[in-house]
Write a structure and sequence with these properties.
There is one protein chain. The chain has helices at about 40-45, 60-75, 85-95, 130-135, 150-155, 170-180, 225-235, 245-250, 280-290; strands at about 5-10, 25-30, 45-55, 60, 100-110, 120-125, 140-145, 185-190, 200-205, 210-215, 240, 255-260, 265-270, 275. By secondary structure, the protein is an alpha+beta fold. The strands form 2 sheets. Strands 7, 8, 9, 10, 11, 12, 13 and 14 form an 8-stranded mixed sheet that branches. The protein binds pyridoxal-5'-phosphate. Pyridoxal-5'-phosphate (PLP) binds near residues 200, 201, 221, 225 and 261.
Amino acid sequence: MRLPFTLLIDPVPADSLQQDFSDTFHEMESTAPALRVGELSTQRGDGIFETLAVVNGHPQEVEPHISRLRNSARICELPVPNAEQWRAAIAYAVSRIPQRGEIALKFVLSRGVEHGPAPTAWLHAAAASDFTAVRGSGVRVITLDRGYPRGVAEKAPWLLMGAKTLSYAVNMAAIREAHRRGADDTIFLTTDGFVMEGPTSSVVLFINGEYVTPAPSGAILHGTTQQSMFDYLRAQGSAVEYRDVTLDELRQADAAWLVSSVRLAVSVVALDGEPFPADQALTDTLNAYLLARTA
Ligand code: PLP
């Protein structure tokens, strides 16, 4: 039971008839060298990943994360991951890490080594940052132009919008820009003024008595946390909807959240330097619900 925890994985084809995958992954010392210099994931960001939360020994939303990994692989023309193998690797990792507290479990599929074996894959679990404060007090957010119009995914599929690739340099730069402007996080907009997502989160708004999130039309990720949040809200009898949201609607919303697997739900408390209404009681209830998930 130790952290960090690392597993190197030999990906097997999606249609493999193999049933026992225990000989397809092995534990590594987390501080030991594990990747070759020719890795295309490190050289070019050419790979895909997922991060899920393990809370008190329960990995959360394993199936939606595996299914999104498979979707990212299809978009990037990577060999489609074998779902059974990833389930087995995640279950093994969870059995080897502490059973208390919040842990971030990241799993990666890379195009592999240049001129060498392909693809390569690994899983890495580490203690999650302590998000208690930000869950309780919210985030100041700026809006930033993502540089693409609405509909870009259909017009330019080679941009790999909608795939969770390892190329997060732009996403990290957007967070640094937020810090430069005295804020904590960012909401990306299309060039024609539609709300997209955060650099590491989905955006959910409360507008006119309804919870709304931009449709995952291909330009943004379909967030697993946003889907859990909608399940919860639907079960409470609230109206939820996927649709286009303009910047004006965001500005006039009654509340907004950034939601993601490990930080969970955080309220937007300022937008582009102006105070923004927040529903902290609902945020607390949502986070209690999200933390209590056992699958
Ligand atoms: N959008 C982007 C760009 C992300 O990086 C993430 C999570 O990392 C999300 C949305 C939210 O997805 P999830 O709720 O599955 O973590």
